[in-house]
Structure prediction request, 179 residues.
Amino acid sequence: MIHPAFVGQRILVAEDEPLITMELGRLLEEEGATVFAARSVSQGLRLVGTRALSAAVVDSRLGAEEADPLCEALGQRQVPFVFYTGQPDAPSARWPTAPVIGKPATAKAIVGAVKYVTTADRRDVLYRKSQKDHDPKVLTSGQRIADGEERIARVSCLITRLEAGGFDTSVARENFWRR
Prediction:
């Protein structure tokens, strides 16, 4: 069954294990996506540089290499990504907004995470934590208010897009406006 959210999506699968790459590719293609596979950071960087990608599924380690250079390149091109890794604690510190799925996982979990990053606001899934980032506890009240208003606008927009797609959003809308 082809899910409308994946039709026309171009997804990079950066995974060094061939069987996992094939399984992820098959799963995403069954959902309507076009899949590009990379077994190393250098292959992934070439694909990021030459393809218009919608999203990526990235193992935190590709062979002996950390996937950070690939994640940096994806972030620079505004391509959201999901970590699919046997080390689920490894990427979360540097990439706190990228969903992390531990291996092994169900097809539903993988597809759900990719659906999330392809429909979420890019600012919600592309944030990279660096040493220069300020502690969020130190934000001024004005910054907190502005950030809250921006998040409210994004959630409202997401609910509207879901409604336009024919989804029942009555519970989400009721709970959202109650706050």
The first strand starts at residue 10 and ends at 14.
